[in-house]
Each structure stands twice: as C-alpha cells, then as structure tokens.
Specification:
One of its GO terms (molecular function) is ubiquitin conjugating enzyme activity. Keywords: ATP-binding, Nucleotide-binding, Transferase, Ubl conjugation pathway. Residues 5-165 form the UBC core domain. The active site is at 90 (glycyl thioester intermediate). There is one protein chain. The protein has a 4-stranded antiparallel sheet with strand order 1-2-3-4. The chain has helices at 4-19, 117-129, 139-147, 149-165; strands spanning 25-31, 34-43, 54-60, 71-74. It is α+β, with helices and mostly antiparallel strands.
Length: 167
C-alpha cells in the first residue's frame, strides 16, 4: 500500500526542485499521474570525460520512501565503473539502510531517510567525476578505467555524442 507520507514528501521535493533548480540537473515526473517515477536529466560535469553530455535516468521510488532508497537507472547509454551494463546506478547511498552483508560499506555510507532527490543526484554527479573502481558494478568499465584511460575516454565520448542524439 502506498504511504500518503511518501507521496507528500515526493510532491514537496518536486515542488522545491521546480521552485529552486539545482545546477547540473533537472527532474520531473515521467507520468503526471505517478509521483513515484521521475525522469532526471544530468548534465555531464565540467572537466570530466562526461562534460557536454545530457544523460537521462529514471528514478523509481519505493512505496515506503524515505525509509528505503529509490533505484536510479540511466536510460541514456552510460559507460562507467559504477553503472551496471543495464544502466542501474550503484552507489552506497542507494543501498538499503543498515550494515552491508558483504562488509564493503559502513552503515553510515548507505541509505538514510535524510537523503533527498537533490542529494541523490548530486551524489551521482560526483560519481561521474570520481568513479569508485574498488567495487565496480561494471567490471569491464572499471578495468578499462584502470588500464586503458584512452580507450575509456573514447567509449565515454561516444556516450556523450549519443546523448545529444537522444535529446
């Protein structure tokens, strides 16, 4: 069952973002009738390989938001160590709250209800600027990031070019 609190909180966050836009991204509903699925457009951060790109993602919130994190999945092609080949973003703050069963992350690095759409997207922009290749979601991208910077740059440049065609 959908929590009225979840809907109200998401409506407030959306209104805040529309009233006070944040540099580097825009967000809105994918379908005006569903507050739980958002479209997010992220501008590739300056001075990174992703600079100049316009990357779209879908942010899907669970019914118990903010107690559980949303999932974020790029719909634009993305080549990054922390993005699964299917586009799903893998960063600590999007992992369920509590202790990491694998012991890689501290509970303080994982999801907490204080996060907002803004803090999530700012974390994703930071991820684009500084990949974490220690626990990659895309092993091939992480290996290329470490061992073949030029090849990695070329693959990302292709994603940046494709992002303009999808606009």
């Amino acid at each position: 069952m959908t929590s009225p609190l979840s809907s109200l909180l998401l409506q407030k966050q959306l209104a805040d973002l529309l009233k006070n836009p944040v540099d580097g991204f825009s967000a809105g509903l994918l379908d005006e009738k569903n507050i739980f699925v958002w479209n997010v457009s992220i501008i590739g951060p300056p001075d990174t390989t992703y600079e100049g790109g316009f990357f779209n993602a879908t942010m899907t919130f669970p019914e118990d938001y903010p107690n559980s994190p949303p999932t974020v999945k790029f719909t634009s092609e993305m080549w990054h160590p922390n993005v699964y080949p299917d586009g799903k973003v893998c960063i600590s703050i999007l992992h369920p709250p509590g202790d990491d069963p694998h012991g890689y992350e501290l509970a303080t690095e994982r999801w907490t209800p204080v996060h907002s759409v803004e803090s999530i997207v700012v974390s994703i922009i930071s991820m684009l600027s500084s990949p974490n290749d220690e626990s990659p979601a895309n092993v091939d991208a992480a290996i290329q990031w470490r061992q073949d910077k030029e090849g990695f740059r070329k693959k990302v440049s292709r994603c940046v070019r494709l992002s303009h065609e999808m606009m």
